Amino acid sequence: MTNIYANEIRKTGFVLESKVSEVLRREGWNVISNKYYEDDLEGNVREIDILAYKVAKIQQVNVYTTLLISCKKSEQDIWALLARPIELNNPNADWWPLHTWSNDKSILYHLGKAKMAKVYHDALENLGVIDALSTPSYEVFAFQEMNKKSGAPRNDTNIHKAVTSLMKAQAYEIGALSARKKTPSIYQFNLISIIDADLYRLVIEGDNISQQQIKDEHYISKYIIKKQETCSRIRFVAAQSFGEILKDYNRLHIGNTKWFNEGIDSFYKDILTDYSRAKILLPEFRAEVEWLIHHEVRKIDGLQLAKDEIIVSWNKKEKYAEVSFWEIKPYLPQLNSNEQLKNKVSAALKKVYRYTGEFWFAEDDIPF
């Protein structure tokens, strides 16, 4: 009996998927094969070939570096990426897209700063990431499958499917995390299209067209996802080069843990001196101390205290924290002499704000 079935299956992309998964596992990545997602545009259930991730715990946050991977094979055709010289100053282009998801307030504050995507790319380069986030050398504006022997253009169907499936899968995963993930986390996403065929760059400059066989190429794609335009980086990779390229994503994960750790540190550093940061964690602090303070305040002439009245601020002159609320001034001596209450509130300041210094109860003189 011949090996007809085994030989024919080699013509599909399934063998490539298996080999890529093996490489990922050897490098310490967790691999999920053929993960399904909902295509909200077409209303269909689709699948992405491989979802791989590494996770590390930093402080209170789990850091996930995530790879969404599409695998394609072509025996008859090469993949040609049509490109032109890049204009990095183009105001309508975003050459440094960053796609993340987090439910941690310190990380969200860090990522919300102006031009943070470019800051992130520069920082990760300084942390040793070489190619995974590099600025594209050329602007890829189109692609074609072309016959390996004759050079005849076919179409861009398979390449387009690889690109759109990656972007849609990324949008789905980011959208689904809010309901699925409860522990403090940060996810950073990377899109990779692996082709088991020759990969070429065709650079068009006026009437001149040059061709070069390449091992990988960065493509910044614009697409409409959930009725909004989004930019994503898709990295085209020739299959034989994936093992080499993956090593830089290992460095990316290490860089992510360092960079996000520094972001958490910067958020908490002297946080009570900056009310814009302090108020972000105010709901958590109020939840910790509301009952404690309310119980003590009720002992004083039966006063009622709403939790939304509790404020944490910084006394710049005396250089200590203040826990204040409205119309409490006559009773401050009693509260500030209550060592048991102060110890419990100090513990809450440490837990929420990581503050271990001196604090006093004070009057909040701005009742709105």
Task: Explain how this protein is built.
- The protein has ten helices and 14 strands.
- By secondary structure, the protein is of the alpha/beta class.
- It folds into two domains: 4-268, no CATH class; 271-363.
- The strands form three sheets. Strands 1, 2, 3, 5, 7, 10 and 11 form a seven-stranded mixed sheet that branches. Strands 6-4-8-9 form a four-stranded mixed sheet, covered by helices on one side.
- The longest helix is centred in the C-terminal third of the chain and has 27 residues, at 242-268.
- It is elongated.
- The mean pLDDT is 91.
Distance between the termini: 85 Å
In round numbers, the mean pLDDT is 91
Structural class assignment = alpha/beta
Overall radius of gyration: 27 Å
Element order: H for helix, E for strand: HHEEEEEHHEHEEEEEHHHEEHHE
Count of the separate structural domains = 2
* Strand portion: 25-35%
Could you name the key traits of this structure?
2 domains, seven-stranded mixed β-sheet, four-stranded mixed β-sheet, 368 residues
Short description:
35% of the residues lie in helices and 33% in strands. It is of the alpha/beta class.
How does the SSE layout of this entry go?
Elements: H1 4-9, H2 14-26, E1 30-39, E2 44-58, E3 61-73, E4 77-85, E5 100-102, H3 105-111, H4 116-126, E6 138-147, H5 157-180, E7 185-196, E8 199-205, E9 208-213, E10 216-225, E11 228-238, H6 242-268, H7 275-278, H8 282-298, E12 311-315, E13 320-325, H9 332-336, H10 339-353, E14 359-363
Helix pairs in contact: 3-6, 8-10
